[in-house]
Amino acid sequence: MADAPAQPSVMEQIVSLCKRRGFVYPASEIYGGLNGFWDYGPLGVLLKNNVRDWWWQNMVLAPPIGPDGHPVEIVGLDSSIIQNPKTWVASGHVGGFSDPMVDDRETKQRYRADHLMVAAAKVKRKDGRVDELGLVSVLSGDNALADFEKRVDKMARRTGGGQVLVPEHAELTPYTKLDRAAQEKVLGPDAAQPGTLTEPRAFNLMFQTYVGAIQDESAKAYLRPETAQGIFLEYKNIVDTMRVKVPFGVAQVGKSFRNEVTPRNFIFRSREFEQMEMEWFCHPDDARKWYEFWTNERMNWWKSLGVKPEKLRLREHETAELAHYSKMTVDIEYLYPFTAPDFGELEGIAHRGNFDLTEHQKHSGAKLEYFDQDRKEKGESEDKFRYLPNVIEPASGLTRAVLVLLCEGFTPDESRPSKMFMRFEPRFAPIKCGIFPLVNKDGMPEIAEKLYMDMRRQFTCEFDAKAAVGRRYARMDEIGTPFCVTIDGQTREDQTVTVRERDTMKQERVSLDKVLPYLRERLGL
Ligand code: GAP
Questions:
Q1: What is the sign, positive or negative, of the torsion defined by CA atoms of 446, 448, 450, 452?
Q2: How far is the CA of 275 from the centre of ligand 1 (A)?
Protein backbone atom coordinates (compact mmCIF):
# COMPACT_ATOMS: atom_id res chain seq x y z
CA MET A 1 0.00 0.00 0.00
CA ALA A 2 1.33 3.47 -0.86
CA ASP A 3 2.31 5.69 2.10
CA ALA A 4 -0.21 8.43 2.99
CA PRO A 5 1.18 11.84 1.92
CA ALA A 6 2.96 13.55 4.86
CA GLN A 7 0.91 16.30 6.55
CA PRO A 8 2.51 19.72 6.02
CA SER A 9 4.05 21.08 9.24
CA VAL A 10 2.52 24.16 10.91
CA MET A 11 5.33 26.26 9.50
CA GLU A 12 4.78 24.93 5.97
CA GLN A 13 1.08 25.80 6.29
CA ILE A 14 1.91 29.33 7.48
CA VAL A 15 4.42 29.92 4.66
CA SER A 16 1.93 28.67 2.10
CA LEU A 17 -0.88 30.84 3.49
CA CYS A 18 1.40 33.89 3.49
CA LYS A 19 2.08 33.42 -0.21
CA ARG A 20 -1.51 32.54 -1.13
CA ARG A 21 -3.06 35.47 0.72
CA GLY A 22 -0.52 38.21 0.03
CA PHE A 23 1.30 38.47 3.37
CA VAL A 24 4.84 37.51 2.34
CA TYR A 25 6.26 36.54 -1.04
CA PRO A 26 9.76 35.27 -1.84
CA ALA A 27 11.64 38.30 -3.22
CA SER A 28 12.36 38.36 -6.98
CA GLU A 29 10.48 35.11 -7.39
CA ILE A 30 10.13 35.32 -11.17
CA TYR A 31 13.94 35.10 -11.35
CA GLY A 32 14.02 32.11 -9.01
CA GLY A 33 14.11 34.20 -5.81
CA LEU A 34 17.11 35.23 -3.72
CA ASN A 35 17.84 33.28 -0.57
CA GLY A 36 17.17 35.31 2.58
CA PHE A 37 15.12 38.08 0.96
CA TRP A 38 11.35 38.50 1.24
CA ASP A 39 8.73 40.95 0.03
CA TYR A 40 5.84 41.97 2.27
CA GLY A 41 2.68 41.85 0.17
CA PRO A 42 -0.44 44.03 0.46
CA LEU A 43 -1.59 42.37 3.69
CA GLY A 44 1.92 41.79 5.08
CA VAL A 45 2.76 45.48 4.87
CA LEU A 46 -0.45 46.39 6.73
CA LEU A 47 0.34 43.86 9.46
CA LYS A 48 3.96 45.04 9.70
CA ASN A 49 2.98 48.71 9.85
CA ASN A 50 0.44 47.97 12.59
CA VAL A 51 3.16 46.38 14.76
CA ARG A 52 5.61 49.18 13.96
CA ASP A 53 3.04 51.84 14.87
CA TRP A 54 2.18 50.06 18.13
CA TRP A 55 5.90 49.98 19.08
CA TRP A 56 6.31 53.67 18.15
CA GLN A 57 3.15 54.56 20.09
CA ASN A 58 4.40 52.74 23.20
CA MET A 59 8.01 53.87 22.98
CA VAL A 60 7.96 57.40 21.55
CA LEU A 61 4.46 58.91 21.61
CA ALA A 62 3.26 57.49 24.93
CA PRO A 63 6.28 55.86 26.60
CA PRO A 64 5.91 53.95 29.87
CA ILE A 65 5.78 55.41 33.35
CA GLY A 66 9.25 55.29 34.95
CA PRO A 67 10.11 54.14 38.48
CA ASP A 68 9.61 57.74 39.76
CA GLY A 69 5.97 57.75 38.64
CA HIS A 70 6.52 60.07 35.62
CA PRO A 71 6.54 59.06 31.94
CA VAL A 72 10.04 58.44 30.62
CA GLU A 73 11.33 60.56 27.75
CA ILE A 74 12.09 59.00 24.36
CA VAL A 75 12.60 60.79 21.05
CA GLY A 76 12.58 59.33 17.55
CA LEU A 77 15.19 59.16 14.81
CA ASP A 78 15.48 57.99 11.21
CA SER A 79 19.19 57.75 10.40
CA SER A 80 20.98 56.76 7.19
CA ILE A 81 21.45 53.14 6.28
CA ILE A 82 24.94 53.90 4.99
CA GLN A 83 27.19 55.76 7.44
CA ASN A 84 30.84 56.74 7.38
CA PRO A 85 32.62 53.34 7.36
CA LYS A 86 34.67 54.37 10.43
CA THR A 87 31.42 53.86 12.34
CA TRP A 88 31.70 50.11 11.92
CA VAL A 89 35.36 50.03 12.86
CA ALA A 90 34.54 51.87 16.10
CA SER A 91 31.51 49.71 16.83
CA GLY A 92 33.59 46.52 16.48
CA HIS A 93 31.60 45.23 13.50
CA VAL A 94 34.51 45.34 11.02
CA GLY A 95 36.71 43.36 13.38
CA GLY A 96 34.27 41.05 15.04
CA PHE A 97 30.78 40.74 13.54
CA SER A 98 31.02 37.21 12.28
CA ASP A 99 29.42 33.79 12.40
CA PRO A 100 31.19 30.42 12.27
CA MET A 101 30.83 29.08 8.75
CA VAL A 102 31.61 25.67 7.36
CA ASP A 103 32.02 24.64 3.70
CA ASP A 104 31.38 21.23 2.22
CA ARG A 105 34.26 20.40 -0.13
CA GLU A 106 32.17 17.79 -1.95
CA THR A 107 28.93 19.71 -2.59
CA LYS A 108 30.32 23.29 -2.44
CA GLN A 109 27.49 24.19 -0.04
CA ARG A 110 28.10 26.58 2.86
CA TYR A 111 26.41 26.29 6.25
CA ARG A 112 26.39 28.09 9.56
CA ALA A 113 28.40 25.69 11.73
CA ASP A 114 26.21 26.12 14.81
CA HIS A 115 23.14 25.25 12.72
CA LEU A 116 24.48 21.82 11.73
CA MET A 117 23.18 19.21 14.15
CA VAL A 118 25.04 15.93 14.41
CA ALA A 119 24.20 12.52 15.88
CA ALA A 120 25.44 8.95 15.51
CA ALA A 121 23.44 6.99 12.92
CA LYS A 122 22.29 3.70 14.49
CA VAL A 123 20.33 0.94 12.78
CA LYS A 124 18.76 -2.14 14.34
CA ARG A 125 19.22 -4.99 11.86
CA LYS A 126 16.72 -7.82 11.37
CA ASP A 127 18.80 -10.13 13.60
CA GLY A 128 18.64 -7.60 16.47
CA ARG A 129 22.21 -6.37 16.01
CA VAL A 130 22.71 -2.57 16.27
CA ASP A 131 25.10 -1.14 13.66
CA GLU A 132 26.63 2.35 13.82
CA LEU A 133 26.85 3.98 10.39
CA GLY A 134 28.88 7.02 11.41
CA LEU A 135 28.14 10.65 12.34
CA VAL A 136 25.39 12.26 10.28
CA SER A 137 24.50 15.98 10.15
CA VAL A 138 21.23 17.73 9.34
CA LEU A 139 20.14 21.36 9.50
CA SER A 140 18.57 22.44 12.81
CA GLY A 141 14.85 23.23 12.84
CA ASP A 142 11.51 21.54 13.26
CA ASN A 143 12.33 18.93 10.58
CA ALA A 144 15.74 18.02 11.99
CA LEU A 145 14.77 14.65 13.48
CA ALA A 146 12.63 13.68 10.48
CA ASP A 147 15.47 14.64 8.11
CA PHE A 148 17.90 12.65 10.22
CA GLU A 149 15.66 9.56 10.10
CA LYS A 150 15.23 9.86 6.32
CA ARG A 151 18.99 10.10 5.70
CA VAL A 152 19.88 7.21 7.97
CA ASP A 153 17.06 5.10 6.52
CA LYS A 154 18.59 5.55 3.05
CA MET A 155 22.00 4.53 4.41
CA ALA A 156 20.43 1.50 6.11
CA ARG A 157 18.69 0.35 2.90
CA ARG A 158 22.02 0.44 1.05
CA THR A 159 23.62 -1.78 3.70
CA GLY A 160 21.01 -4.50 4.22
CA GLY A 161 18.06 -2.61 5.75
CA GLY A 162 16.81 -2.39 9.32
CA GLN A 163 15.09 0.00 11.67
CA VAL A 164 16.57 3.45 12.28
CA LEU A 165 17.05 4.23 15.97
CA VAL A 166 16.03 7.88 15.97
CA PRO A 167 17.90 9.92 18.60
CA GLU A 168 16.16 12.18 21.11
CA HIS A 169 16.09 15.87 20.14
CA ALA A 170 18.58 16.57 22.93
CA GLU A 171 21.08 14.08 21.44
CA LEU A 172 21.56 16.25 18.34
CA THR A 173 24.84 18.09 18.96
CA PRO A 174 25.84 21.31 17.16
CA TYR A 175 28.85 20.78 14.85
CA THR A 176 30.69 23.58 16.69
CA LYS A 177 30.58 21.58 19.94
CA LEU A 178 32.43 18.57 18.44
CA ASP A 179 36.22 18.29 18.65
CA ARG A 180 38.08 18.47 15.33
CA ALA A 181 38.66 14.70 15.23
CA ALA A 182 34.88 14.12 15.37
CA GLN A 183 34.15 16.96 12.88
CA GLU A 184 36.39 15.21 10.34
CA LYS A 185 34.14 12.14 10.40
CA VAL A 186 30.80 13.92 9.91
CA LEU A 187 28.66 13.36 6.82
CA GLY A 188 27.54 16.80 5.54
CA PRO A 189 23.79 17.51 5.16
CA ASP A 190 23.92 17.16 1.37
CA ALA A 191 27.05 15.05 0.95
CA ALA A 192 27.45 11.45 -0.17
CA GLN A 193 30.80 10.88 1.58
CA PRO A 194 31.71 11.64 5.21
CA GLY A 195 34.62 13.91 6.14
CA THR A 196 34.10 16.66 3.56
CA LEU A 197 33.16 19.49 5.95
CA THR A 198 35.84 22.09 6.67
CA GLU A 199 36.77 23.47 10.06
CA PRO A 200 34.45 26.39 11.06
CA ARG A 201 35.79 29.80 9.97
CA ALA A 202 34.68 33.32 10.94
CA PHE A 203 32.65 35.02 8.22
CA ASN A 204 31.90 38.77 8.44
CA LEU A 205 28.18 39.41 8.09
CA MET A 206 28.24 42.98 6.79
CA PHE A 207 27.24 43.70 3.21
CA GLN A 208 29.80 45.89 1.48
CA THR A 209 29.27 48.50 -1.18
CA TYR A 210 31.11 51.46 -2.67
CA VAL A 211 30.16 55.11 -2.36
CA GLY A 212 30.89 57.20 -5.45
CA ALA A 213 32.22 56.32 -8.87
CA ILE A 214 35.53 54.77 -7.91
CA GLN A 215 35.46 51.29 -6.49
CA ASP A 216 38.58 51.12 -4.33
CA GLU A 217 39.32 50.55 -0.63
CA SER A 218 38.82 54.23 0.19
CA ALA A 219 35.26 54.17 -1.20
CA LYS A 220 34.20 51.02 0.67
CA ALA A 221 31.09 51.36 2.84
CA TYR A 222 28.66 49.01 4.56
CA LEU A 223 24.92 48.55 4.73
CA ARG A 224 24.14 48.90 8.43
CA PRO A 225 23.84 45.58 10.27
CA GLU A 226 21.91 47.26 13.12
CA THR A 227 20.00 50.51 13.51
CA ALA A 228 21.64 51.18 16.88
CA GLN A 229 24.85 52.80 15.62
CA GLY A 230 22.92 55.57 13.81
CA ILE A 231 21.54 56.50 17.23
CA PHE A 232 25.00 56.71 18.84
CA LEU A 233 26.20 58.91 15.96
CA GLU A 234 23.32 61.34 16.56
CA TYR A 235 23.49 61.25 20.36
CA LYS A 236 25.43 64.53 20.54
CA ASN A 237 23.16 66.38 18.09
CA ILE A 238 20.10 65.23 20.01
CA VAL A 239 21.54 66.32 23.39
CA ASP A 240 22.53 69.68 21.88
CA THR A 241 19.24 70.40 20.09
CA MET A 242 16.40 68.63 21.84
CA ARG A 243 16.51 69.75 25.48
CA VAL A 244 16.60 66.12 26.59
CA LYS A 245 18.12 65.27 29.95
CA VAL A 246 19.72 62.00 31.01
CA PRO A 247 17.98 59.60 31.43
CA PHE A 248 16.36 59.64 28.00
CA GLY A 249 15.95 57.33 25.04
CA VAL A 250 16.29 57.52 21.26
CA ALA A 251 14.17 55.11 19.23
CA GLN A 252 14.49 54.07 15.63
CA VAL A 253 12.75 51.62 13.30
CA GLY A 254 14.36 50.64 10.03
CA LYS A 255 16.05 48.21 7.73
CA SER A 256 19.17 46.31 8.69
CA PHE A 257 21.22 43.98 6.54
CA ARG A 258 23.25 40.92 7.45
CA ASN A 259 24.81 38.50 5.01
CA GLU A 260 23.62 35.56 7.12
CA VAL A 261 25.42 32.30 6.28
CA THR A 262 22.26 30.26 6.47
CA PRO A 263 19.14 32.42 6.27
CA ARG A 264 16.30 30.16 7.28
CA ASN A 265 13.00 29.48 8.91
CA PHE A 266 11.06 31.78 6.60
CA ILE A 267 11.44 35.42 7.73
CA PHE A 268 13.01 34.49 11.11
CA ARG A 269 16.55 34.92 9.87
CA SER A 270 16.73 36.93 6.68
CA ARG A 271 19.46 38.96 5.05
CA GLU A 272 17.37 42.14 4.86
CA PHE A 273 15.05 42.76 7.81
CA GLU A 274 13.66 45.51 10.00
CA GLN A 275 14.61 46.32 13.56
CA MET A 276 12.96 48.37 16.29
CA GLU A 277 15.68 49.58 18.62
CA MET A 278 15.84 52.02 21.48
CA GLU A 279 19.01 53.24 23.14
CA TRP A 280 18.37 54.40 26.70
CA PHE A 281 21.07 56.79 27.95
CA CYS A 282 21.38 56.83 31.73
CA HIS A 283 23.76 57.59 34.56
CA PRO A 284 26.18 54.69 35.15
CA ASP A 285 24.96 54.34 38.77
CA ASP A 286 21.39 53.78 37.53
CA ALA A 287 22.13 51.39 34.66
CA ARG A 288 21.22 48.20 36.53
CA LYS A 289 17.88 49.67 37.65
CA TRP A 290 17.00 50.66 34.05
CA TYR A 291 18.10 47.28 32.70
CA GLU A 292 15.54 45.63 34.96
CA PHE A 293 12.93 48.28 34.17
CA TRP A 294 13.24 47.80 30.40
CA THR A 295 13.32 44.00 30.65
CA ASN A 296 10.00 44.12 32.46
CA GLU A 297 8.48 46.74 30.16
CA ARG A 298 9.47 44.94 27.00
CA MET A 299 8.09 41.61 28.19
CA ASN A 300 4.77 43.35 28.91
CA TRP A 301 4.82 44.90 25.45
CA TRP A 302 5.07 41.49 23.78
CA LYS A 303 2.12 40.31 25.86
CA SER A 304 0.20 43.38 24.65
CA LEU A 305 0.46 41.94 21.12
CA GLY A 306 -1.72 39.06 22.28
CA VAL A 307 1.19 36.59 22.57
CA LYS A 308 0.37 33.88 25.11
CA PRO A 309 2.56 34.36 28.22
CA GLU A 310 3.50 30.66 28.30
CA LYS A 311 5.05 31.03 24.82
CA LEU A 312 7.39 33.79 26.01
CA ARG A 313 10.35 33.50 28.33
CA LEU A 314 13.41 35.44 29.46
CA ARG A 315 16.87 33.96 29.04
CA GLU A 316 19.98 35.61 30.49
CA HIS A 317 23.10 35.28 28.35
CA GLU A 318 26.00 33.38 29.87
CA THR A 319 29.27 35.34 30.04
CA ALA A 320 30.82 33.41 27.13
CA GLU A 321 27.83 34.21 24.93
CA LEU A 322 27.78 37.99 25.49
CA ALA A 323 28.35 40.25 22.46
CA HIS A 324 31.60 42.25 22.54
CA TYR A 325 29.76 45.42 23.64
CA SER A 326 27.60 43.88 26.33
CA LYS A 327 27.99 43.74 30.11
CA MET A 328 24.78 41.74 30.45
CA THR A 329 22.02 40.72 28.06
CA VAL A 330 18.67 39.06 28.50
CA ASP A 331 16.75 37.69 25.52
CA ILE A 332 12.99 37.62 25.26
CA GLU A 333 12.33 34.32 23.52
CA TYR A 334 9.28 32.83 21.81
CA LEU A 335 8.27 29.23 21.30
CA TYR A 336 8.40 29.18 17.46
CA PRO A 337 6.99 26.07 15.73
CA PHE A 338 10.45 25.40 14.25
CA THR A 339 12.35 25.74 17.55
CA ALA A 340 9.87 23.82 19.75
CA PRO A 341 10.38 22.36 22.29
CA ASP A 342 13.09 25.04 22.48
CA PHE A 343 12.51 28.78 22.36
CA GLY A 344 14.14 31.20 19.88
CA GLU A 345 15.22 34.85 20.12
CA LEU A 346 12.73 37.64 19.64
CA GLU A 347 14.36 40.61 21.34
CA GLY A 348 17.57 41.25 23.25
CA ILE A 349 17.86 43.74 26.10
CA ALA A 350 21.53 44.60 26.51
CA HIS A 351 23.42 46.62 29.09
CA ARG A 352 26.01 48.15 26.73
CA GLY A 353 27.76 50.16 29.44
CA ASN A 354 29.50 53.12 27.78
CA PHE A 355 31.14 50.91 25.13
CA ASP A 356 29.73 52.69 22.08
CA LEU A 357 30.13 56.29 23.23
CA THR A 358 33.69 55.53 24.41
CA GLU A 359 34.60 53.99 21.05
CA HIS A 360 32.98 56.72 18.94
CA GLN A 361 34.64 59.36 21.08
CA LYS A 362 38.00 57.65 20.57
CA HIS A 363 37.63 57.08 16.82
CA SER A 364 35.95 60.37 15.87
CA GLY A 365 37.66 62.75 18.29
CA ALA A 366 34.24 64.28 19.15
CA LYS A 367 33.57 65.00 22.84
CA LEU A 368 30.60 62.90 23.87
CA GLU A 369 30.63 63.45 27.63
CA TYR A 370 27.40 64.54 29.24
CA PHE A 371 27.33 67.47 31.63
CA ASP A 372 24.65 66.78 34.24
CA GLN A 373 23.52 70.17 35.53
CA ASP A 374 21.07 68.66 38.05
CA ARG A 375 23.76 66.54 39.69
CA LYS A 376 26.15 69.50 39.79
CA GLU A 377 23.50 71.64 41.49
CA LYS A 378 23.00 68.88 44.03
CA GLY A 379 26.70 69.25 44.92
CA GLU A 380 27.83 65.89 43.50
CA SER A 381 31.50 65.40 42.60
CA GLU A 382 32.74 66.08 39.04
CA ASP A 383 33.05 62.38 38.12
CA LYS A 384 29.31 62.09 38.94
CA PHE A 385 28.15 65.11 36.93
CA ARG A 386 30.50 64.83 33.93
CA TYR A 387 30.32 61.36 32.41
CA LEU A 388 29.69 59.16 29.41
CA PRO A 389 26.16 57.81 29.87
CA ASN A 390 25.58 54.07 30.04
CA VAL A 391 23.19 52.56 27.55
CA ILE A 392 20.43 50.02 28.01
CA GLU A 393 19.23 48.76 24.65
CA PRO A 394 15.98 46.91 23.97
CA ALA A 395 16.58 45.66 20.39
CA SER A 396 13.88 43.75 18.61
CA GLY A 397 13.06 42.60 15.11
CA LEU A 398 9.99 44.08 13.44
CA THR A 399 9.93 41.35 10.82
CA ARG A 400 10.42 38.78 13.58
CA ALA A 401 7.43 40.31 15.38
CA VAL A 402 5.40 39.78 12.21
CA LEU A 403 6.47 36.13 12.22
CA VAL A 404 5.37 35.79 15.85
CA LEU A 405 1.95 37.26 15.06
CA LEU A 406 1.59 34.88 12.11
CA CYS A 407 2.55 31.87 14.27
CA GLU A 408 0.41 33.00 17.19
CA GLY A 409 -2.58 33.81 14.99
CA PHE A 410 -2.60 30.56 13.01
CA THR A 411 -5.52 28.55 14.41
CA PRO A 412 -6.57 25.26 12.78
CA ASP A 413 -10.36 24.77 12.78
CA GLU A 414 -11.75 21.82 10.84
CA SER A 415 -15.31 23.12 11.27
CA ARG A 416 -14.72 26.04 8.89
CA PRO A 417 -14.58 25.94 5.11
CA SER A 418 -11.08 27.50 5.36
CA LYS A 419 -10.04 24.78 7.91
CA MET A 420 -8.20 27.49 9.85
CA PHE A 421 -8.34 31.14 10.72
CA MET A 422 -5.89 33.84 11.76
CA ARG A 423 -6.69 34.93 15.31
CA PHE A 424 -4.95 38.33 15.18
CA GLU A 425 -5.69 40.82 17.95
CA PRO A 426 -8.06 43.26 16.16
CA ARG A 427 -5.52 46.10 16.54
CA PHE A 428 -3.02 44.26 14.34
CA ALA A 429 -5.38 42.66 11.82
CA PRO A 430 -4.52 44.00 8.34
CA ILE A 431 -8.21 44.39 7.48
CA LYS A 432 -10.57 45.20 10.35
CA CYS A 433 -13.84 44.60 8.54
CA GLY A 434 -15.16 43.03 5.34
CA ILE A 435 -18.27 44.60 3.81
CA PHE A 436 -20.39 42.38 1.61
CA PRO A 437 -23.62 42.95 -0.30
CA LEU A 438 -25.24 39.50 -0.13
CA VAL A 439 -26.06 39.69 -3.84
CA ASN A 440 -25.04 42.18 -6.45
CA LYS A 441 -28.53 43.63 -6.97
CA ASP A 442 -31.70 44.91 -5.23
CA GLY A 443 -29.96 48.03 -3.92
CA MET A 444 -27.58 46.01 -1.73
CA PRO A 445 -24.31 47.09 -3.44
CA GLU A 446 -25.27 50.77 -3.08
CA ILE A 447 -25.91 50.48 0.67
CA ALA A 448 -22.73 48.43 1.11
CA GLU A 449 -20.65 50.92 -0.84
CA LYS A 450 -21.93 53.85 1.20
CA LEU A 451 -21.03 52.01 4.42
CA TYR A 452 -17.60 51.21 2.96
CA MET A 453 -16.97 54.88 2.11
CA ASP A 454 -17.85 55.90 5.70
CA MET A 455 -15.90 53.08 7.31
CA ARG A 456 -12.67 53.38 5.35
CA ARG A 457 -12.05 56.79 6.85
CA GLN A 458 -11.86 55.18 10.30
CA PHE A 459 -10.18 51.81 9.80
CA THR A 460 -9.04 49.42 7.09
CA CYS A 461 -11.94 47.64 5.47
CA GLU A 462 -12.55 45.77 2.27
CA PHE A 463 -15.58 45.86 -0.02
CA ASP A 464 -16.18 42.50 -1.64
CA ALA A 465 -19.15 41.72 -3.87
CA LYS A 466 -17.74 38.64 -5.58
CA ALA A 467 -18.45 34.92 -4.97
CA ALA A 468 -20.81 33.21 -2.52
CA VAL A 469 -20.90 34.83 0.90
CA GLY A 470 -19.47 31.65 2.52
CA ARG A 471 -16.39 31.92 0.29
CA ARG A 472 -16.02 35.57 1.24
CA TYR A 473 -16.19 34.73 4.98
CA ALA A 474 -13.61 31.97 4.43
CA ARG A 475 -11.15 34.37 2.83
CA MET A 476 -11.63 36.88 5.63
CA ASP A 477 -10.98 34.09 8.18
CA GLU A 478 -7.76 33.22 6.39
CA ILE A 479 -6.49 36.80 6.55
CA GLY A 480 -7.67 37.29 10.14
CA THR A 481 -10.38 39.93 9.60
CA PRO A 482 -12.17 40.24 12.97
CA PHE A 483 -15.57 41.32 11.58
CA CYS A 484 -17.65 41.04 8.41
CA VAL A 485 -20.77 43.07 7.71
CA THR A 486 -23.32 41.71 5.25
CA ILE A 487 -26.05 43.78 3.66
CA ASP A 488 -28.98 41.53 2.74
CA GLY A 489 -32.67 41.61 1.81
CA GLN A 490 -33.70 42.53 5.33
CA THR A 491 -31.48 45.63 5.33
CA ARG A 492 -33.89 47.50 3.09
CA GLU A 493 -36.83 46.53 5.25
CA ASP A 494 -35.52 47.31 8.74
CA GLN A 495 -32.19 49.10 8.17
CA THR A 496 -30.17 46.38 9.93
CA VAL A 497 -27.10 44.44 8.78
CA THR A 498 -25.52 41.14 9.83
CA VAL A 499 -22.26 41.43 11.73
CA ARG A 500 -20.24 38.21 11.85
CA GLU A 501 -17.49 37.82 14.42
CA ARG A 502 -14.42 35.88 13.28
CA ASP A 503 -13.51 33.85 16.38
CA THR A 504 -16.99 32.65 17.37
CA MET A 505 -18.56 32.87 13.86
CA LYS A 506 -21.62 34.25 15.68
CA GLN A 507 -23.85 36.59 13.69
CA GLU A 508 -25.76 39.49 15.10
CA ARG A 509 -28.14 41.99 13.54
CA VAL A 510 -27.06 45.56 14.13
CA SER A 511 -28.76 48.72 13.02
CA LEU A 512 -27.03 50.22 9.98
CA ASP A 513 -26.56 53.61 11.64
CA LYS A 514 -24.98 51.98 14.75
CA VAL A 515 -22.62 49.64 12.98
CA LEU A 516 -19.59 51.98 13.04
CA PRO A 517 -19.62 52.70 16.81
CA TYR A 518 -20.45 49.00 17.39
CA LEU A 519 -17.32 47.93 15.51
CA ARG A 520 -15.08 50.64 16.94
CA GLU A 521 -15.92 49.51 20.45
CA ARG A 522 -15.26 45.85 19.69
CA LEU A 523 -12.06 46.59 17.79
CA GLY A 524 -10.80 48.57 20.78
CA LEU A 525 -9.91 51.51 18.52
N1 GAP B 1 21.73 46.46 18.29
C2 GAP B 1 21.76 45.14 18.83
C3 GAP B 1 21.34 44.12 17.88
O4 GAP B 1 21.23 44.36 16.68
P5 GAP B 1 20.73 41.60 17.70
O6 GAP B 1 20.35 40.61 18.78
O7 GAP B 1 21.77 41.20 16.74
O8 GAP B 1 21.09 42.92 18.46
C9 GAP B 1 18.27 42.47 17.55
O10 GAP B 1 19.42 41.97 16.89
C11 GAP B 1 17.04 41.81 17.00
O12 GAP B 1 16.98 41.96 15.58
C13 GAP B 1 16.97 40.30 17.24
O14 GAP B 1 16.47 40.00 18.51
C15 GAP B 1 16.01 39.87 16.13
O16 GAP B 1 14.67 40.10 16.54
C17 GAP B 1 16.34 40.84 15.01
N18 GAP B 1 17.25 40.20 14.04
C19 GAP B 1 18.58 40.05 14.12
N20 GAP B 1 19.07 39.41 13.05
C21 GAP B 1 18.02 39.13 12.25
C22 GAP B 1 17.86 38.48 10.98
N23 GAP B 1 18.90 38.02 10.31
N24 GAP B 1 16.61 38.37 10.46
C25 GAP B 1 15.55 38.86 11.12
N26 GAP B 1 15.63 39.48 12.32
C27 GAP B 1 16.85 39.62 12.88
A1: negative
A2: 7
Please state whether the peptide bond connecting residue 225 to the residue before it is cis, i.e. omega within 30 degrees of 0: no
Distances, alpha carbon 108 to alpha carbons 188, 202, 403, in Å: 11, 17, 31
Between the CA of 396 and the centroid of ligand 1 the distance, in Å, is 6
Angle at 233 (CA atoms; ends 230, 235), nearest 5 degrees: 105
Which residue's CA is the nearest one to ligand 1's atom 19? 397
State if residue 397 touches ligand 1 by the CB under 6 angstroms criterion: yes
Q: Is the CB of 277 under 6 A from ligand 1?
A: yes
Rounded to the nearest angstrom, the distance between the alpha carbon of 512 and the centre of ligand 1 is: 47
Q: Find the mean pLDDT for residues 30-35.
A: 97
Ligand 1 pocket residue status of 331, Cβ below 6 Å: no
Distance from residue 252's CA to the centre of ligand 1 (Å): 14
CB 82 within 8 A of CB 189: no
Q: What is the pTM of this model?
A: 0.87
CB 275 less than 6 A from any atom of ligand 1 = yes
Question: What angle (nearest 5°) sits at the alpha carbon of residue 337, between those of residues 333 and 342?
Answer: 50
- Indicate whether 156 pLDDT > 70: yes
Q: How far apart are CA 198 and CA 472, in angstroms?
A: 54
CA–CA gap between residue 23 and residue 38 (Å, rounded): 10
Measured from the Cα of 227, ligand 1's closest atom is 1
Indicate the SS3 state at residue 127. Answer: coil
Residues 294-338 pLDDT 10s: 999 999 999 999 999 999 999 999 998 898 899 999 999 999 999
H-helix or E-strand spanning residue 93: helix 93-96
From residue 291, alpha-carbon distances to 41, 203, 352, 415 in Å are: 36, 31, 10, 46
